[in-house]
Amino acid sequence: MGPENVEEFALAKEGGPEYEARMAMYGDAFAVATKDNVVEMFGGLLSEPDKAVLEPSPHARSSPRRCDKVSSSDGAASTTTTRRS
After folding, report:
1. 65 falls within a domain
2. In a domain? residue 20
3. Which of 26, 28, 65, 66 lies most in the core, judged by the most C-beta atoms within 10 Å?
4. What does the H/E/C string look like for the chain?
5. Could you tell me if residue 60 is inside a domain?
6. Confidence band (pLDDT; 50, 70, 90) for 10?
7. Is the pLDDT of residue 85 over 70?
8. Is the pTM of this model over 0.70?
9. Average pLDDT, integer, range 24-31
10. Cβ–Cβ contacts within 10 Å for residue 78, how many?
């Protein structure tokens, strides 16, 4: 458990307005999370491998790809990947 979980769990056990306010604050903050701040927002809750997956990679593709599901005449589905312009 991260330090944030310990504090949150203690508040949850007590319940009441302080807990409700904290949960509302978390909800508001995470509603506007971005790929640039999500690791920071999780604080001490993420392991190093989790952080590595969420942090931008220098090897990331410069343009997104789109996957489309295509059905053949016999009804079998396949997936095609195309680069978006």
Report:
1. no
2. yes
3. 26
4. CCHHHHHHHHHHHHCCHHHHHHHHHHHHHHHCCCCCCHHHHHHHHCCHHHHHHHCCCCCCCCCCEEEEEEECCCCCEEEEEEECC
5. no
6. very high
7. no
8. no
9. 92
10. 9
